């Protein structure tokens, strides 16, 4: 396995390996000694907070460098403003009748 990864590193800048869930089987934990880092993939409504925390703990137990989390299957339209990121910006002009000048405002 180590020889395979070393050969791949000579050819590619990034190597992504998809493994079964770390909390179910040990594949991810075994592969961690050959990789530079691990991404934890979670699915809203399926992965529990406790399950994600356990997975992270299992990765750290084998000295894996956890790079971050990928949220897979997140439906922005279904989630709405309360669950997701929301940003709004508007810009407009109005007449200032008293001074005869135009002013602009940001909201």
Structural account:
With 107 residues, the chain is of the alpha+beta class. Helices cover 30% and strands 21% of the residues. It has helices spanning 2-11, 27-31, 49-61, 76-79, and strands at 38-42, 66-71, 91-96, 101-106. Strands 1-2 form a two-stranded parallel sheet. The protein has a two-stranded antiparallel ribbon with strand order 3-4. A hairpin with a 4-residue loop joins strand 3 and strand 4 (101-106). The chain starts with a helix and ends with a strand. The relative contact order is 0.13.
Give the secondary structure arrangement, pairings included:
Blueprint: H1 2-11, H2 27-31, E1 38-42, H3 49-61, E2 66-71, H4 76-79, E3 91-96, E4 101-106
Parallel strand pairs: 1-2
Antiparallel strand pairs: 3-4
